[in-house]
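Tokens in:
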């Protein structure tokens, strides 16, 4: 999954990033109030931490929904990208940093809305708000991948799920199913689910996962 943030928050997050004001997401008849990217980050980070704590010593070679990775490779990929992406945002991070270092650096960096002003030249010049949204969404969905792999609780934070799904609906298909600015493949084809499926299941299916 890459750059799902092309319209995450549909512009509302940009305003919150500059002003610190509360934003309301209204993808349908019901909206969700939250105070900006730091709140969604805390939810996603909390879920990742909880799931990682459930990985047993004998589970690192288990397969994952990302067919090319076992659990060890999934965790390594997630931490590498969170560290690399965080550094692109200007956080005090470097490749190889552990999760606690990453978590603390994001919490500090995202607490100051001015840190998300400007663009990221190394990632096709996208706004920092959009890269931050992508990184949070990436962490959220890989939390589910890891939970499915090790038999942990698969429930994701509802507000983060709705924010992510809202953004996914606005990303052009040629980008969503193509490659990111670094040339890496993005999402596979969506999986069909029942119209009665939960929002989380619909989001996962949209990213090519079988809930």
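Residues out:
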């Amino acid at each position: 999954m890459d750059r799902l943030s092309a319209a995450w928050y549909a512009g509302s997050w940009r305003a919150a990033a500059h002003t610190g004001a509360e934003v309301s997401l209204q993808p349908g008849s019901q909206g969700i109030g939250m105070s900006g990217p730091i709140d969604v980050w805390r939810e996603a980070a909390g879920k990742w931490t909880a799931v990682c704590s459930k990985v047993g010593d004998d589970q690192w070679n288990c397969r994952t929904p990302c067919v090319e990775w076992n659990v060890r490779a999934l965790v390594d990929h997630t931490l590498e990208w969170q560290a690399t992406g965080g550094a692109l945002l200007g956080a005090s991070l470097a490749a190889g940093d552990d999760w606690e270092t990453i978590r603390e650096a994001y919490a500090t960096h995202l607490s100051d809305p001015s840190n998300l002003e400007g663009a990221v030249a190394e990632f096709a010049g996208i706004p920092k708000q959009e890269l931050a949204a992508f990184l949070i969404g990436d962490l959220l969905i890989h939390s589910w991948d890891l939970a499915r792999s090790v038999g942990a609780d698969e429930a994701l934070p509802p507000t983060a799920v709705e924010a992510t799904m809202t953004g996914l609906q606005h990303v052009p298909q040629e980008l969503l199913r193509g490659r990111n600015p670094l040339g890496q493949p993005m999402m596979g084809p969506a999986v069909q689910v029942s119209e009665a499926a939960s929002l989380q299941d619909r989001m996962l299916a949209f990213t090519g996962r079988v809930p």
